[in-house]
DNA sequence: TGGCTTGGTTCATATCATGAAACTTTGTAA
DNA sequence: TTACAAAGTTTCATGATATGAACCAAGCCA
C-alpha cells in the first residue's frame, strides 16, 4: 500500500528506493549504517530495506561487516573512477574549487541541482582552522538553502521558482525554521540584484556562505560555486575580495564547460 | 514472462537490472552507451532499459547528453569518493599496486571475486610501451579466467570450485574457447603446486599474466594481485623476479588488511 | 528470568514492473 | 519532396514480482 510520490517517476519504485539507500549509507559517514538506522532514515519497511541491501551487496555497491553494519562498496569506487574520466562539471571545476579553497583559506564548494534539491558534489577544505562543516560532499538540501543553492534558485525563471517553492515549503517549515518561503523570496530578490548569493548564517547559526551560479554555454544551469566560512570571515570588508575570486573562478569554469558537450536535464 | 535466474536473488529483479546497466555503461568507455547498445548488451527489453535509465538519471547515477548517449553520472563520483574514505581492500592495496606497476614496468592489477565472476577494481599502467590491455578496471570475467582470477579460484575449497565451474561452463564454451573446464582444472592443480597462478596467454593471445591470491586474517578470500604483460616480458628467466615482487607486495597488503575489520561475504 | 532492542526471514497479497506495440524523431536515399 | 529505415521514446493491459505485517532469533540489561 504505497500511494505517495508524484507520477514523474513511475515503474521503478524499487530502483529509486535502492538508490536512495545508497545515498543514505553514504550520508552515514565512516561508521556505516545499521539496518534499523536506514529503516528510520528512509521510512521504508525493514524487510524491504534488507532485500534492497542484499541486491546492492550482490552488485558490490554495498558491503556488510561482521558487526552487521552497511558501508559503501568497492564497485562504487570503480564506477566513480570511471565516471571521473569523462569531461563534465566536476572535471571542469576541480582545479578552480581547489584553488578557491587554498587562496581564500575557507571551504570551497561545488553544488548541483537535483530536482527541487541541491547536492554538494565537491568540497575543498580551506586552511583556516575554524571550519564550517555545514555542508559536506554528498549532502543534500532543498534548493535555496545555502549560498550556492540560493544562487541556483535565483537564476531560475520565476515560474520554476514558484514550483520549486511549492515543493519544498513543507521541508522548510519542518527543518529550516529561519527560512520561511517569504524570507527565501527576499533573498532571491537580493541575489538577483547583487548578482551573487549571500547566506548570512540562516541555515546554521554562524555559518555564512557566498555563492554564484554556473551555466552551460546554452544558458542552462550547471551548478554553483560557493565559499563557506564562519561569520567572522564574512565581514563586509572581506566580501568584495571573496566576490572577485568567486567571479573569476566561475568564469574560468564556464569557459571550460564551453569546451564540453552540455547534458540533458 | 521472465523465468530465468536462480533463486538466490529474489524480490529485486529491477534493482539487479539497474545495477547491471550501470556496469554496462561503465564498460562502454568514454563515449558512453546508446540505448540500442545497452539493449543488445543486457538482453533486456528496450522499454525496460529506458525506464531503468530514467530512474538512474533521476538519481544522478547516469547522465544523458544531447546526442542521447548515456554516461555515468556525478553522483557516482561523489559516492565513489565517499566509499574511498573507508579502509578496505582497495585502500590496503593502492600503494602496493602502484609500486608493483612502477617497479616491474608492467600493468599491475587488483581483482576481487563477485560470485562466479571476477571484477578488476584497480589497474596501474606500467611504463613498458607495449601494453596488454586485456584487463581494464571495471571489467568482469568468469572466475578462473586470467591470472589473478585463476589464483582466486585455485584458493577455494574443492566443492566450491566445482559449483563455480558448473556455473561458468556455458560461458567458457561460448567466449573462451581455449579454456575448457578440464584445462581450467589442470591450471588450478598447477597453481596450487606453484603457489602462484600463471596465465600463458590463454585468454587473449600473447597476453600473459602472473597472479597471487590475497586473504583476510581469518583466511577468507579478499582478492588477487596480478601482473599482466606481453608474452616476451614473461619468459621463464623473468618469472622468479616477478614472483618475488608479487609475493612481497601481497604480504604487505595482507598485513594492512589485518588492521582492518574483515567483511562478510 | 523476562522484557527490550536489533538483525533477519517468511509468505499471502495486490502493486508494480514488464514488454509488445505504437508513436516520434532523425537520417538518408531516391 | 517523399519514402523508407533506424533509433529513441511512450503507452497500457497483464501477471509476475516486490511488498510489509507478522514472525523468529540473538544479544543485552536489570
UniProtKB/TrEMBL annotation, chains A, B:
PROSITE patterns, alphabetized: HTH_ICLR (PS51077), ICLR_ED (PS51078)
Alphabetic keyword roster: DNA-binding, Transcription, Transcription regulation
SMART domains linked: HTH_ICLR (SM00346)
UniProt cross-references to InterPro entries, sorted A to Z: GAF-like_dom_sf, HTH_MetabolicPath_Reg, Tscrpt_reg_IclR_C, Tscrpt_reg_IclR_N, WH-like_DNA-bd_sf, WH_DNA-bd_sf
Ranges that cross the membrane: none
Any one biological process term the GO annotation gives: negative regulation of DNA-templated transcription
MF term (GO), any: DNA-binding transcription factor activity
Record-annotated IclR-ED domain positions: 75-259
Gene3D superfamilies the UniProt entry points to: 3.30.450.40, Winged helix-like DNA-binding domain superfamily/Winged helix DNA-binding domain
Record domain HTH iclR-type: where: 12-74
Pfam families reported in the protein's UniProt record: HTH_IclR, IclR_C
PANTHER family: HELIX-TURN-HELIX TRANSCRIPTIONAL REGULATOR, ICLR FAMILY, TRANSCRIPTIONAL REGULATORY PROTEIN
The protein's name: DNA-binding transcriptional regulator, IclR family
Organism: Paracoccus homiensis
Amino acid at each position: 500500500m504505497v500511494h505517495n510520490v508524484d507520477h514523474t517517476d513511475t515503474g521503478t519504485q524499487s530502483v529509486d528506493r535502492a538508490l536512495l539507500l545508497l545515498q543514505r549509507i553514504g550520508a552515514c559517514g565512516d561508521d556505516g549504517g545499521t539496518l534499523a538506522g536506514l529503516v528510520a532514515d528512509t521510512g521504508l519497511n525493514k524487510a524491504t530495506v534488507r532485500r534492497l541491501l542484499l541486491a546492492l551487496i550482490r552488485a558490490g555497491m554495498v558491503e556488510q561487516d561482521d558487526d552487521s553494519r552497511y558501508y559503501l562498496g568497492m564497485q562504487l569506487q570503480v564506477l566513480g573512477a570511471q565516471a571521473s574520466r569523462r569531461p563534465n562539471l566536476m572535471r571542469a571545476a576541480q582545479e578552480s574549487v581547489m584553488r578557491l579553497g587554498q587562496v581564500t583559506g575557507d571551504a570551497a564548494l561545488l553544488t548541483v541541482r537535483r530536482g527541487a534539491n541541491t547536492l554538494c558534489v565537491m568540497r575543498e577544505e580551506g586552511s583556516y582552522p575554524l571550519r564550517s562543516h555545514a555542508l559536506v560532499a554528498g549532502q543534500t538540501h532543498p534548493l535555496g538553502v545555502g549560498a550556492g543553492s540560493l544562487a541556483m534558485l535565483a537564476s531560475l525563471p520565476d515560474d520554476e521558482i514558484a514550483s520549486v517553492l511549492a515543493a519544498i515549503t513543507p521541508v522548510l517549515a519542518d527543518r529550516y525554521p529561519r527560512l520561511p518561503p517569504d524570507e527565501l523570496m527576499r533573498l532571491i530578490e537580493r541575489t538577483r540584484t547583487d548578482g551573487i548569493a549571500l547566506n548570512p548564517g540562516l541555515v546554521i547559526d554562524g555559518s555564512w556562505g557566498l555563492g554564484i551560479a554556473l551555466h552551460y554555454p546554452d544558458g542552462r544551469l550547471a551548478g554553483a560555486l560557493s565559499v563557506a566560512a564562519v561569520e567572522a570571515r564574512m565581514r563586509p570588508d572581506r566580501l568584495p575580495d571573496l566576490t572577485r575570486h568567486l567571479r573569476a573562478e566561475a568564469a574560468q569554469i564556464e569557459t571550460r564547460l564551453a569546451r564540453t558537450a552540455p547534458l540533458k536535464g
